What we know:
InterPro entries: Nict_dMeBzImd_PRibTrfase (IPR003200), Nict_dMeBzImd_PRibTrfase_sf (IPR036087). Helix 3 links the parallel strand 1 (33-36) and strand 2 (58-62). The chain has a single domain (4-115), classed as 3-Layer(aba) Sandwich (Rossmann fold). Helices cover 59% and strands 8% of the residues. The chain is globular and about 50 Å long. By secondary structure, it is mainly alpha-helical. It has helices at residues 4-11, 14-28, 37-50, 69-76, 92-115; strands spanning 33-36, 58-62. It has a two-stranded parallel ribbon with strand order 1-2.
Amino acid sequence: GLDxxxxxxxxxxPELAVLAGVALGAAEARxxxxxxxxxxxxxxxxxxxxxxxxxxxxVAGQRSRERGHDAVLQALGCEPLLDLxxxxxxxxGAVLAASLLLQGLALRRGTARVDR
Length: 116
């Protein structure tokens, strides 16, 4: 198999390289990375292959209907938050998943205050 950089250069476009770089940078900053759809998931997989620690910052926003998306999610070890089977490609699943994550965080923070 090709190493991740060679595969990205030969098979991916500049947008996948940028997305992989965003995932690498976000993980380094200890930020959560919500991936949505085939292209962002492939970019995240490249980032994980370059730096395995990236995997712990990934959240699969949704499972799309795009061919191959299930296989990439399995390779990432990510179970999607939503199973919307969208094919829109505009990040709708990521926006919905991020909203769900933020609501869960707010609920958790509210619960922590009550416990004190």
